[in-house]
Amino acid sequence: MKNTINKLFQLRKSLDECEKEFGLNNYSEVERAVFSFITSNSNVTITSIKKNPYFSKYSLSTIKRAVLFLTSNGLVNAEQSSLDKREKILVFNQ
Q1: What 8-state DSSP symbol labels residue 22?
Q2: How far, in Å, CA of 44 to CA of 87, rounded?
Q3: DSSP 8-class letter at 73
Q4: Cβ–Cβ under 8 Å, residues 35 and 27
Q5: What percent of the chain shows pLDDT beyond 70?
Q6: CA–CA separation, 83 vs 68, rounded Å?
Q7: Model-level pTM?
Q8: How far, CA to CA in Å, does 50 sit from each of 1, 7, 13, 85, 92?
Q9: In order of start, what are the domains of the chain with their CATH numbers?
Q10: Which tens digits make up the pLDDT trace of 10-55?
Q11: Which residues contact 78 (CB under 8 A, 6 or more apart)?
Q12: At 2, is the pLDDT very low, low, confident or very high (cuts 50, 70, 90)?
């Protein structure tokens, strides 16, 4: 059990270091989670974020606020989908 707890702390420490590298350490938990989801997946929309089981604990408006925060800070771009003009595809702004 103690070994598992130590592993959990090491994972948290590694995650914290990675988030600091990206400059995310002052962002909220949901903003960091949404950023991670966008950067690790393709064709991401607000709907696809909400449908992911990890985000079931967040409301749609909370996710939208996080996306707005990330886009207004230039970390993420929202590009119009070529398939459905109503949708915005969220991409990491490298």
Answers
A1: H
A2: 10
A3: T
A4: yes
A5: 100
A6: 22
A7: 0.89
A8: 33, 29, 27, 19, 18
A9: 27-92 (1.10.10.10)
A10: 999 999 999 999 889 899 999 999 999 999 999 999 999 999 999 9
A11: 67, 71, 88, 89, 90
A12: confident
